[in-house]
Amino acid sequence: MGSYLELREFMDKKDRGLRRKVMSLKDAIGLIRDGDHVASGGCHYSRTPMASVWEMIRQGKKNITYSRSIASTEGDLLLVGDVTKHVMTSWFSPGVTWGVSRVMRHYTEKKLARYEEWSHMTLGLRYRAGAMGTPFIPTRAMLGSDLFPRLPDIKQMDCPFTGDKLALIPALNPDVAILHTQRCDEYGNVQSDGLPFMDKDIAMAANKVIITTERIVSNDQIRRAPDRTDIPFFCVDAVVEVPYGSMPHECYGQYQPAFKHMDYYVKLMMGKGPDGVKEYLDQYVYGPASWNEYLEKIGLANILEATNEGRGIYND
Amino acid sequence: MTSPNYNTAELVAVMSARFLEDGKIVFGGAGMPLVSCILAQKMHAPTLTILFEGGVIGPHVEIGKMPPSTNEQRAAKQANMLLSITDILLLQQRGFVDYGFLGGAQIDMYGNLNSSFIGDADNPKVRLPGTGGANDIASLASKILVAMHHEKKRFVEKVDFITAPGYLHGGTSRRDAGLRAGGPYKVITHLGIFGFEEKSKRMCLETLHPGATIEEVKARTGFELVIPKKIEYTKAPTDEELRILRELDPDKRYTTPKAE
To answer: Using the beta-carbon criterion (under 8 Å), do A119 and B136 form an inter-chain contact?
Structure first.
């Protein structure tokens, strides 16, 4: 992440034409370089770009700074897979009902990795400032807390208009955004359903954007409902069709989490800590030859159950 | 005295619900806070609007189908509007949100909450999951309700880490830090209701729940509470409140007391 002029220069050089960007998951994740800041869309166990996370681990990415509004099991996988030693988030564990991640505790308490804790809203404001091309956004949150002095990139000032004390939340422009959506055309026009999370700001803030999508639709279909487009094509660098690309997490209206698989993972992770997750990586990330093979391992019954429940959102 | 026909978690849920007024907006977290919000809607606050941090305005939560997280599709069902996380939390800064509903691993005499570290932050005994939106809610919502089981390890003189600011170090320190609005309003435990003294901002006992004693409250609090001269008692949960509560959470997933 460089200066404002470097950001502009990167944008100047980027081909922002209405061009086809469909590629393989392998090639898309090939756009990520070791040391990059990778911001992930969705939140918690919803609309997680799991296929991209999975491929990052398989490609052995290193020294990634990983940011996400709330990190769930994918954060564990990235730590144990040695992809990241620096996670920037507001909350880090599989989910309220599953307890505190033993992997997060192990890596942070033993100082093997850094968990940089921002409040949920101020992490969102970092992406938004990045998206706006402004160096910071002022807010009245974070003041007086013990979170504030632990953060390297936060400042305080008195408002030049009112004199009010304000926290200044600096822009975050990720090198790469990884986002998952329900549908997108081959140019990268994204139309997501349901909870928007922080995806739009992340896409506008990042230098490169990788979209995995449940299905690729035609540009005509996008143009029939342009008001539904969340992310414009010129932000996007790669479009990859990956059905069930958030599994075992959920994708709104398509599938709920594969809860049995989540329970299985959490039991392994909480029981054996990082060693349990190493076993999981061998079996579910390094082992399968393809994403489809990974889905086969999660199992048809689990996936059908998640699909039935997930589509239920549209029932009266 | 005969033993009550409700458990301590149900007691906290009912007592919390009574503070949520009609026509107001509340940030309801997953679990017990959500149960309380819906109970309030059914009892006395039909136009109370619930917000979820995941980006949901006014959801329709199905009876017996409480979402375990507020960031997922079940929490969004039949909502009035879905917003980005940043925007839903920003509603508070503008003043739209009356109540924030929080918990935490620790609370102190000034209502500061910790959900980040047990022990020294640089060498923690336990690294907890973190703030989520708690810091934003505690900083920006108009009134903070804290619902907690009353235990000495949770009610500490000084929290190990201020994740979500209460009245900081008491007096005017919250305002002096730049937190112009809001602050802790009530702390609801299984023993009583607690408020904050107007000037000192120290936590004070307001009412004891039926069956609770001052001695038990003191024994379970790691700091000196302000105790009023005349002790008032809270009205016990009514049959109606308990009936609705149990309809909402038939398996008692969110209203079972946690083991101490």
So the answer is: yes
Mean pLDDT by 10 residues, chain B (260 residues): 85 97 93 92 96 94 77 90 98 98 95 98 97 97 96 97 98 98 97 98 98 97 96 96 93 85
Cβ B131–A91 below 8 Å, yes or no?
yes
Q: Is this prediction's pTM over 0.95? A: yes
Domain assignment of residue B34, given as a range: 8-248
Tell me whether residues A198 and B84 touch, CB distance under 8 A: yes
Report the number of distinct structural domains present in chain A. Answer: 2
Q: Do A164 and A179 belong together in one domain?
A: no
Distance of alpha carbon B183 from alpha carbon B168, whole angstroms: 10
| Whether B240 is catalytic | no
A263 and A217 within one domain: yes
Interchain CB contact of B128 with A (< 8 Å): yes
Cis peptide before B33 (omega within 30 of 0): no
SS3 of A13-82: HCCCCCCCCECCHHHHHCCCCCCCEEEECCECCECCCHHHHHHHHHCCCCCEEEECCCECHHHHHHHHCC
Distance CA(B157)–CA(A133), nearest Å, equals 44
In A, which residues are within 8 Å of B84 by CB distance? 124, 196-201
Minimal Cα distance from A142: which residue of B? B135
Q: For residues B12 and B21, what is the distance between their CA atoms, to the nearest angstrom?
A: 17
Q: What CA–CA distance (Å, rounded) separates A256 from A236?
A: 27
Helix orientation angle between A259-272 and A300-311, rounded to the nearest 10 degrees = 120
Flag whether the ipTM exceeds 0.90: yes
- Element spanning A3, H or E: none
CA angle, corner A167, sides to A165 and A169, nearest 5?
155
Judged by DSSP in three states, A257 sits in: coil
What whole-number percentage of chain A has pLDDT above 70?
A: 99
Which CATH number do you get for residue A42?
A: 3.40.1080.10
* Residue A37 near residue A178, CB atoms below 8 Å: no
Model pLDDT, residue B253 = 86
Question: Among B129, B174, B178, whose Cβ lies nearest the Cβ of A166?
Answer: B178
